[in-house]
């Protein structure tokens, strides 16, 4: 842990730096994988399953029977939990569909926007150390609410060639039937180019390791859109004198356990809370199964004693955290000061894991200071907002002169003529 | 012109292909320009003004006196036109700011979103054959409405080292005071990296030639966001028997005059309208000052006679046009069928130039089939939507079990513990 007591503002810019990631030069490998998938389709994916996931798979298609089996293998408590989460996520994301608002900007000139789904979307769910079925909910639910026609899900098989049951169950619950056993950069390549089995999509969502991240970047050259650029997960907690150190510690650790490259930042104005939170972190980390990862993440993490909550929020805006926990009492005062954050958790009972799983907000959020210029995933991420306009004859009469003058001043006389020819009629 | 009569659906996929662009390998040049701007700041920009724009500029900063001068140089009609356009664009974009909607997803669990401006944005306005002051309005107005604190505008100087007066006037009218004389890839580099004069920004907007487009792509490696990927401008017009051939022709030409790489597509069910529109295009193009560009664009453009309006809309969805003009009578029937388009113009009097300048909609739109997966610029492009959540003690009691079960099933026990430790208290 890096401990700072009242650091001078001059060094804040250093303090908000993310740990520098080892930038392996993997773009040549990504290009090779895309080429191989382009040439050999499903067979390439099956080969990569063998090579990268040590899995024998006859086909990349997940059969209906496998999905049914998965449902039987999930215990009832988990099913009910996933269902409650689905309900909340659905409620919150459904509220993001605005009513159409027609605006008459000039008499006879009416403009509005309508949402249309991105027709074909791809969802990538990593395998690896944690089977992230919660991410299935976070991406498939808004995709469905948006009305996306084709929703494709790719996830790597385990060594026995199977997909985690909870992932299959969550997918089924969300109405996804096109599930494929393929992971890493090759899964992204398959959804970008298309194979005999895997449909080509227009936009790809989902987290992943550095190969997946690089492949998503590469996929954009093919005209595919992606949800957002990615980096390691992070949380920043701001505490005052009434914050509860054990709670703060637990929240910091719930982020730190994600991976050794995760980062957590703790800011408080209260010396007692400062010291007790550090102690509680040291205490709690011992009992975690993912102790090693969390400890590594903590090494790069900062604990900062700061002179005011205003300063703490200012520091946070500079850091632009993916998750921001305001474990303070004067929420109304500080919420308007927040400028850059992915998702904000308010008060002593809004732990980050609530939003990670079940409160209803999306957990696909901008990391690595991208909260300065990107939003998290929402219903908006799955639609295009198309503008419409209708000018009546009167509308064009009212606006025509303005258009003609501007078009002429830009030297675009065909633009002007499109108005003039109508006004003359 | 390419003329197709009732083309079979098998060849539609070929027909909707965009002309293949000459892909010059310019990435090495872009990297050099970024390096040079990084090393030499303003001096690099001044050097590039000399080299690429044949302009001697002592400083890249546009002085207040220059802006005032510009105001005096603009005639009153143009001022009034720009003001009316500003009013309409403001009205429509202001309507895109949703009210905060707090959703109680579970008793005691409240979630909502709040907009926060992207704090620093950069606007690029090309010089070249047309001084696009209208694009200043389209980008500066929503940036201001969103509350962006720092709005930077870069545009190349003419050979005498000056900026077009209408660009300066529009910028001033929109409250932009940070204007810099720098164009091309070097302007994008300056806004990405920052120089002594040009502030570094978080998101860059605006059209440009292939160097600007490549530079915007490259800038993303620095963590900067961009409005959208870009390609040549395009329009698709769908006409029925009541459409007016001269109007259709004028609309097609107003797009074709943009550049020799523009593309226009005309679809109609009516043979008479088909023939007369082609004649009208041939007639009208002769009188255009930008005749040469428009003629080149027409060479690659398609005129399609098609058997039904349903088929025409289907074709359009496959093409995913930047601009779609529905010059037909049964609007209510066909609007819901539109799946992919940037901006849609309805009826015989909604010419594309209305939206290009003054109706209120934004003219920064997805081209090159990106209307399948991108929206045009709107107020949303200048904000992040931050999610907030507040769980009361009761809220966590209601949701806690669900979070614990899901976290445990994902093997993330620190996530579970953040709930358990609170429930125990």
TrEMBL record, chains A, B:
InterPro entries documented for this protein: Ald_DH/histidinol_DH (IPR016161), Histidinol_DH_CS (IPR001692), Histidinol_DH_monofunct (IPR022695), Hstdl_DH (IPR012131)
Listed pathway(s): Amino-acid biosynthesis; L-histidine biosynthesis; L-histidine from 5-phospho-alpha-D-ribose 1-diphosphate: step 9/9
Chain positions recorded as NAD(+) binding sites: 124, 186, 209
MF annotations from Gene Ontology: histidinol dehydrogenase activity; NAD binding; zinc ion binding
Sorted UniProt keywords: Amino-acid biosynthesis, Histidine biosynthesis, Metal-binding, NAD, Oxidoreductase, Zinc
N-terminal signal peptide: none
Active site as annotated: 322-323
Record Pfam families: Histidinol_dh (PF00815)
Cofactor: Zn(2+)
Binding annotation for substrate: 233, 255, 258, 323, 356, 410, 415
Positions contributing to Zn(2+) binding: 255, 258, 356, 415
Cofactor note: Binds 1 zinc ion per subunit.
UniProt xrefs under Gene3D superfamilies: 1.20.5.1300, Nitrogenase molybdenum iron protein domain (3.40.50.1980)
UniProt catalytic activity: L-histidinol + 2 NAD(+) + H2O = L-histidine + 2 NADH + 3 H(+)
NCBIfam families: hisD
Protein name: Histidinol dehydrogenase
Lineage: Bacteria, Pseudomonadati, Bacteroidota, Flavobacteriia, Flavobacteriales
